[in-house]
Predict the 3D structure of the following.
Amino acid sequence: MEWKKVAAVLTAGALCLSLVGCGATSGSSAAGSTATGAKTPMKAGTYTASAKGMNADVAVEVVVDENSIVSAKVTSNQETPGIGGDLVDANGKVVTNGGQAPVSLIPQEVVDSQTLSVDGVAGATITSYAVKSAIEDCLTQAGANADEWKTEAPAGTAIADQSADVVVIGGGGAGLAAAISAVQNGANSVIVVEKNGEVGGDTLVCGAIYNNPDTELQSKVTMSDSVKTTLEKALSETPANDEHAALQGEVQKEWDKYKSEKRTDLFDSKEWFALQTWINGDKVGNLDLVKTLCYNAEDGYNWIKDLGMTFNGEIGQGAGSLWQRTHTSTMPMGTGFISTYANNIAANDKITILTSTTATALVQGTDGKVTGVTVQDAKGNEATLSANVGVVLATGGFAANSKMVQQYNTSGKWDDLSKVPTTNRFSCSQGDGITMATAVGASLTDMEQIQLLYLGNTQDGTLTKYPPRDVNGTSQVIFLNKEGERFVKEDGRRDDICKAVLAQTDSMYYIVESADGADYKDITDPSWRSADGFTFDYLKDNGYILVGDTLDDLAQQIGCDAATLQKTVDTFNASVDSGKDEFGRTLFSCKLENGPWVATARQACIHHTMGGVTIDTAGHVLDESGTAIPGLVACGEVTGGIHGANRLGGNAVVDTVVFGKLAGETVMKG
């Protein structure tokens, strides 16, 4: 089998997953199965069944004759696109170049192999199990002995040693950007190694927001006095060092020019973006790296748009971004970024993606140069991928590795995080790239800097089931605790909000909105969908939102005193009129007055790790002496030094694009 584009189709599950539980070897015969001989005859016909997936029931339809499975397909599901469900691009086309979702792959493999013992898709365990369970149910309805349909599936082709100009470890946003950039900069061959069954990583489940100054869109925003205060406060600070003073001076000149022109539109510049990012990272980050991020953000924005990425054409202020420079994808979560990258790779025969392939160690020559990586496929077969030019490390952070989080949670900002959930995918952010890099001498930076985000749902902590206003509706919502009171400024820093959330009853709160504001969308419209694609009824019926026609109705559902809630809303509305808020909020767009009222329960979760391998402004990985390790470049959340002690909302995607693109350029310079 040729390992080109998406490899290991038949070995698509690095996680073992059989219908009798994950303890059995993937693809092995289940207890009681009949490896040879005739099976119990079935009653020919079409059968349907469903099983609980990650988000909701996964429904299947199976057609059988007396002795075989004629066809099988998933007829409906609400699984996360690109993980359990199909990844779809902006044109509505299913994207398969970066791997297939279990809702498509597993039914076809069951038919092709005539067995239920096909591998699950790595990184989509629950959906994989649901699809196979529902198919098994159909066979049982047809009179089959299900155990007889659990014979060993045909083995796929084992991975073999290969070579390319560039090997990229990690198929998330940063890794895919690096692969495309490497080809744009002269690479004739690139291999992308992805341990999950599909590319995407945590970029796939991000809030899909991207920050950069945008003169055209920001010219349509009026700069309020309260927003001016944020800028002037930053300019009045005593500089921490000469570099801070120099950057502050540049922004002051720009601000003076703005005022002399008597402008009223929103002020912004790449220098102000950098100053604000560095200051609100508590001046911990490497200012040169911060400048690299912010000064190249607009170029990265244009680059990914040239690749086909689309944004909604409005400027906003994403959660924790602190300024109205946020662009939002037209597609749910990070599917726009990943489908854009995957489509570009599909049109480029110089890039090979190996899914369900886990990198285990970097290979280093006698001269210290990193020359490749050892990998293991889903069946445990090992191989070496040699890099003729260099290796790009893009494996993400360690937010889903509880042991690693506890090890490095030493900043004093957070108490015990062992029981705090994560917004990240457990199959992704495990810190494995950091471990591999330190084994070849890489130094680490800011490992103690761990960020929480206050937007995890209270059922599993993930960034899903968004409220109707989604992550860019800061100006149109308030945050309430269980007592019906505000407790923090909603447009503040992520860490400040998270600390306030953790101090509330049950360490949770509600995002509350009303049917007000120029861009309000009728949530009772049957065509309405949340930011991540769910219907209003689904969110309500499954307990993700509470809905009341009146404020009293909402208070009853929250369980708070109605008079207290009314006073909270009245006080907020007075702040909208005056522009002065008791918590220091600066961003307002409308009063909250009309029903229906919606409350979305949220909690603070481990979200981003700002620490990682030390890099320079070109992305070279540095050793303890500050010397670049030859042949090794890194990008994305695996790196440290960029975001300091607090990452601004929307800057993570900027990081993947800017430093991913830069990594492709740097690695090709040798």
User: Anything to note?
Assistant: Residues 1-36 have pLDDT under 50 and may be disordered. The first helix runs from residue 102 to 113. The CA atoms of residues 185 and 436 lie 26 Å apart. The radius of gyration is 26 Å.
